[in-house]
Amino acid sequence: MLRSRHYTSAHEDFRKTVRRFMERECAPNREVWQKDGKLPRDLWLKAGEAGLLCTKVSPEFGGGGGDLYHAMIILEEQTRIGFNEITFYLHSDIIAPYIELYGSQEQKERYLPRMVRGEMVAAIAMTEPGAGSDLQGIRTSAKRDGNGYRLNGQKVFISNGQVANLICVAAKTDADAGGKGISLFLLETDGADGFVRGKNLNKIGCKAQDSSELFFDNVFVPADNLLGGAEGRGFPQLMQRLPEERLIMAMSAVATMEFAVAETAAYVAQREMFGHKLGDFQNTRFKLAECKTKATLARAFLDYGIDSFIEGTFDITQGAMIKLWTTVRAHEVADECLQLHGGYGYMSEYNVSRWYADTRLGRIAGGTDEIMKELIGRTL
Amino acid sequence: MTDIAQQTALPYTDEHEIFRTSARRFFEEECVPQQAAWRDAGMAPRSIWKRAGELGFLCPRVPEEYGGAGADFLFSVILLEEQARSGAVSPMLSLHSDVVAPYLVHYGTAEQKSHFLPRMTSGDYVGAIGMTEPSGGSDLKNLRTTARRDGDGYVINGQKTFISNGITANLLVLAAQTTKPDGGRSVSLFLVDTDEVKGFKRGRNLKKLGQKACDTAELFFEDMRVPEGALLGGTEGRGFAQLMNRLVEERLMTAVAAMGIVDHALAVTIDYVKERKAFGQRIIDFQNTRFKLAECKTEAKVLRVFLDHCIREFMAGELDAAMAAMLKYWATEQQVAIVDQCVQLHGGYGYILDYPIAQMWADGRIARIYGGANEVMKDIIGRTI
After folding, report:
1. Does one domain contain both A241 and A360?
2. % of chain B beyond a pLDDT of 90
3. What is the pLDDT of residue B135?
């Protein structure tokens, strides 16, 4: 396996902690959580205690002060146990940065330490029934009312939507201003009148990751909870975060490819067929060679992406390319690895069956393949 | 065309870029306009080899004491990249400079180096590798060509096929079986000066699907006598290891060429779809065009990043056989797939050989076969899993 060359011994120590946590706290509960369709709240508290949440957030706010590799290690270790749907990355590396980068000092002090401890679980509410990546078309509104705003509208496909008690909501503060009329609000859901969680949506894969409709009926948010304190900044805030979010999705895809190849190689080495090991058939070796090649290229591309990100040159096109390529290839690899497992590959107890179902989401979430191609196509 | 220096993290210096500019000029001005004539002739003339030698475009890495420039690996990368990006498949300079010459540099005796290398650098010798036989390609252990010890030399009998530069070359690195004292057989390489031997015959210049401006020949050896000094490195039985050790670099160079071809194919296709109209709009204004090109650009970027990674590993002495196999397999598959997609976006013109993309389509197919077929690559990768 082509390991990222930037892992230090501190990263590897962190990996040990993460691996222990995944094996002890997560792996034994997977089936229950999948049946529940969500992760329990106390998992977040335990993760906070173990130092697994908000690893990149500054120590000033209680965070780990780490880098993207900490996020990568968590994704690798949850993939190792075949548990792609643990959404720590969403909370820690996608949502916390909004607050840390754009929030006021008060907002950072109020929310980040509680997110680090897992007392607050975060979600981001962007997509609506009528608007996904075409964010300018959202209809949820935020109207000024006294010392706050009133939210009205509806969101859909919101990960962590069932468990989150801090939701970053995109809403229009000016219905006529297009992208310039969008603002982000930090909604504390405890005691928020008019806020209703819809049903936990039943999905193809990612079973233990909840995904919800959310309804806002005249929900009051104090003016202090407008992210960054000024209206109309939501669109650029969201756009600026997309490359890194897509890089994080690529991390998960790459980890899945690597573990799918390793696990399938182990499977074909012991499985007997027609008097041979399955791994002795030329087709098996060639298919695995193809999968390994894809995984190797993916890791090299990811390393390049992370390097560019750290240098500050990682842009929207690179983000689109890395997300498009790695998620498409991850799903191909998962499919081929499932095929090599035969009937067992179709059984939910095998990681490969879940990787196959789970990786399908990668080509949709965070902007579909087609949105990525639009973005890349614009640079031709 | 965007400059490669902006797309890559390789340690290119100003000197490299000056070299790139002059290489580009050479290919564009002296090779591209001649391709049609050379296709008709089935090969490039010897004069262009001499010209390349004069300009310093042969064997740039050969040490100065043997007439070379002692340049680093990136100069070879630049030359091949620029040739591929120009669309000129002929002459096959890289085969001469990056495949044949290194055998001498790495394994040759002092006499062999001093005799051949300066003349390879000047273009007086043009090199070829005689490895593949009618009965075997990558399966080297079953060579049928034999070299029998006889007095102060060897007598060689056998036959080779698919030999690139086979009509042009006057220096042949020839693989043959030698007999060990215990009667066992092993592979040895011989440096054959084809102007100086008897019993050597060139067969037909083989007709190919593409690469028509490059000669590919059958070669016959009938009691061909070579002196003792023709044995590469002076010790019998080292041929297999010598050949194997060279494969990583050869496969890396195949990928360098593939990358150059991809860059060129995308550049001409993007230009084309911006000009050509259909149903009242430019081809690029159709969503399918943009999506297909977005896919190709993404593949090109992934390949570029992986190629750069492998070049750095190679320069650090760390590129292994499996990684080189992955690179060769992936790069050439992508090259062929992307060029095919580019033909499609050209419509009917893409099938007309006056258009560079049609020529690239025909010329490129061999990449999945030579340097070890991609199935051989998968075999190598599969062994490491």
Report:
1. yes
2. 92
3. 83
Please, what is the end-to-end C-alpha distance for chain B in angstroms? 39
Task: Say how far apart CA B60 and CA B167 lie, in whole Å.
Answer: 24
Give tens-digit pLDDT for B135-165.
876 677 789 999 999 999 999 999 999 999 9
User: How many domains in chain A?
Assistant: 3
Containing H/E element for B265?
Answer: helix B239-275
Which of B295, B333, B342 best probes binding to A when mutated, by most A CB atoms within 10 angstroms?
Answer: B295
Is A292 part of the contact surface with chain B (CB cutoff 8 Å)?
yes
Residue B291: CA count within 13 A, CB half-sphere: 7
Task: Count how many residues are written for chain B.
Answer: 385
The rounded Cα B341 to chain-centroid distance in angstroms is 24
- Which residue reads 């109309």 in tokens? A232
pLDDT average, residue stretch B307-334: 97
> Are B16 and B115 within one domain?
yes
Touching B: A residues 228-257, CB under 8 Å: none
pLDDT tier at B191, thresholds 50, 70, 90: very high
pLDDT, average across residues B48-63: 97
Are both A144 and A83 inside the same structural domain?
Answer: no
Query: Which residue positions in chain A have pLDDT lower than 50?
Result: 1-2
Confidence of residue B326 (pLDDT cuts 50, 70, 90): very high
Cross-chain residue pair A370–B291, CB shorter than 8 Å: yes
B136 vs B62, more confident:
B62
If asked whether residues B31 and B91 sit together in one domain, one would say yes
**Which B residues in the span 296-355 are in contact with A, Cβ-Cβ below 8 Å?**
297-299, 301-303, 305-306, 309, 323, 326, 329-330
Residue B28 has pLDDT above 60, yes or no: yes
Best probe of the B interface among A258, A304, A306, by most B CBs < 10 A, is A304
* Known catalytic residue at B250: yes
What sign has the CA pseudo-torsion B23, B25, B29, B33? Answer: positive
Whether the pTM exceeds 0.90: the reply is yes
The residue from B82, B218, B236, B250 that is catalytic is B250
Verify whether the Cβ–Cβ distance B381 to A293 is below 8 Å.
yes
| Co-location of A285 and A204 in the same domain | no
What's the confidence (pLDDT) of residue B299?
Answer: 98
CB A159 within 8 A of CB A210: yes
CATH code for the domain of B151: 2.40.110.10
Q: Which of B162, B147, B138, B154 is nearest to B219 (CA)?
A: B162
Of the three residues A117, A151, A184, the one that is the final residue of a domain is A117
Same-domain pairing of B52 and B117: yes
Which candidate in A267, A278, A291, A293 is best for mutational testing of the B interface (most B CBs within 10 A)?
A: A293
pLDDT mean across residues, chain B: 94
Question: Which residues of A are marked as active site?
Answer: 245
Structure confidence by residue, pLDDT tens digits, B85-135: 999 999 999 999 999 999 999 999 999 999 999 999 999 999 999 999 998
Q: Which residue does chain A place closest to B269, by CA atoms? A: A380
Note every long-range contact of A301-304, with CB atoms under 8 Å and residues 24 or more positions apart, other chains counting: A301/A250, A301/A325, A301/A326, A301/B301, A301/B302, A301/B305, A301/B306, A302/A4, A302/A247, A302/A250, A302/A251, A302/A254, A302/A326, A303/A4, A303/A5, A303/A6, A303/B309, A304/B9, A304/B305, A304/B309
State the pLDDT at residue B1: 34
Question: Where in the sequence is the domain holding B104, given as residue range(s)?
Answer: 4-125
| CATH number of the domain encompassing residue A185 | 2.40.110.10
Report the CATH number at residue B39.
1.10.540.10
With beta carbons under 8 A apart, name residues in chain B contacting A324.
294-295, 298
Chain A residues with CB under 8 Å of B384 CB are: 292
Q: Does residue B145 share a domain with residue B121? A: no
User: Closest chain A residue to B273 measured between Cα atoms?
Assistant: A380
Residues B64 and B151 in one domain: no
Q: Name the residue among A261, A290, A321 with its Cβ closest to that of B301.
A: A321
Q: Is the pLDDT of residue B3 over 50?
A: no
